[in-house]
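stage 2 :: seqdesign
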């Protein structure tokens, strides 16, 4: 089916893969996948009625899709396991209600509904392994570890008052780690790659907190700002030395996590220190200024040398980190939505 440029520019969803190396976008005509650096379109698959959610598994050609509901074949309560190489469906999961988010790891599929998370095996015939009750979760908040060694899932607990629970999907008999993360409801959760650390933000959006996933201990607290804002995305660098936080104020704050090195040996011991001061940060401005309805997602490149931001207006921003000066320089501003394969 032919797709017009104006149709393509109506983005529905955005997501990075587990290592930030590529990202996906959904539209009313299907979905596209892009290499993050250098920016390049990788896949452009069309579906009648469009897709609302795409979730990738690293660079594997299997992706999970949820339709917009405009086509009865792709309702909002069905996960399509799609082979993007051979252009065919290889499996599906039908849920009892509309799906809010999907998270993938090599052995699990987590399907997020309004008040629960369904955990399935990742196979051509997915088997339901567990059902986890959550707080009302209309935006699909949760984090799933991609690490082979740490099968953790974090989610807003059914209890009220900013509680997060972390469960080990490989040891479901072990009680979840319970964390009183914030006074307000949790708005964003993210793991570092080994899933040894978890970052959270509340609906107020002024504080970012870092927790040890084993013990639930608060490791550090960063202030994004004094004025409330909607936190849109939180991303650790692959080496766990930096944390990026994108907000509705058209900003991305970059925090140094070097202060955690002595406290948390699992982060690593050979990371070069980028910034002076353990809790200093950089404030990056997304320009032109986004509208309040614009969503943006952030990630780091593989070497923790750049911050990449993609927005639902189709824009792509790349900021290079200058290690000597402790500053970021905007190197790239373009529109990924205008690319063709």
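stage 2 :: out
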């Amino acid at each position: 089916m032919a797709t017009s440029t104006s149709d393509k520019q109506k983005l529905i969803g955005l997501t990075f893969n587990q290592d930030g190396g590529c990202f996906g976008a959904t539209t009313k005509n299907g979905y596209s996948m892009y290499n993050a650096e250098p920016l390049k379109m990788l896949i452009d698959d069309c579906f009648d009625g469009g897709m609302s959610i795409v979730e990738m598994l690293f660079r594997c050609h299997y992706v999970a899709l949820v339709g917009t509901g405009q086509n009865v074949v792709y309702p909002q309560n069905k996960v399509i396991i799609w082979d993007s190489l051979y252009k065919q469906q290889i499996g599906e999961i039908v849920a009892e209600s509309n799906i809010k988010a999907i998270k993938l790891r090599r052995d699990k599929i987590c399907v997020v509904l309004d008040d629960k998370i369904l955990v399935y095996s990742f196979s051509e015939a997915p088997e339901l392994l567990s059902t986890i009750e959550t707080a009302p979760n209309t935006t699909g908040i949760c984090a799933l570890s991609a690490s082979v060694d740490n099968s953790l899932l974090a989610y807003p607990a059914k209890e009220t008052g900013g509680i997060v629970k972390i469960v080990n999907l490989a040891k479901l008999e072990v009680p979840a780690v319970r964390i009183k993360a914030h006074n307000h409801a949790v708005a964003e959760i993210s793991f570092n790659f080994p899933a040894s650390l978890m970052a959270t933000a509340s609906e107020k959006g002024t504080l970012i907190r870092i927790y040890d996933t084993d013990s639930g201990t608060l490791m550090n607290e960063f202030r994004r700002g004094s004025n409330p804002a909607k936190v849109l995305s939180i991303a650790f660098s692959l080496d766990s030395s930096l944390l990026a936080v994108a907000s509705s104020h058209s900003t991305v704050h970059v925090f140094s996590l070097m202060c955690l090195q002595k406290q948390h040996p699992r982060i690593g011991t050979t990371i070069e220190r980028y910034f002076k001061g353990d809790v200093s940060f950089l404030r990056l401005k997304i320009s032109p200024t986004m509208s309040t309805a614009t969503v943006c997602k952030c990630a780091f490149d593989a070497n923790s040398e750049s911050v990449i931001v993609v927005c639902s207006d189709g824009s792509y921003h790349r900021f290079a980190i200058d290690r000597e000066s402790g500053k970021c320089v905007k190197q790239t501003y373009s529109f990924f939505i205008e690319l063709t394969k």
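stage 3 :: structure notes
- Helices lie at 5-8.
- The first helix runs from residue 5 to 8.
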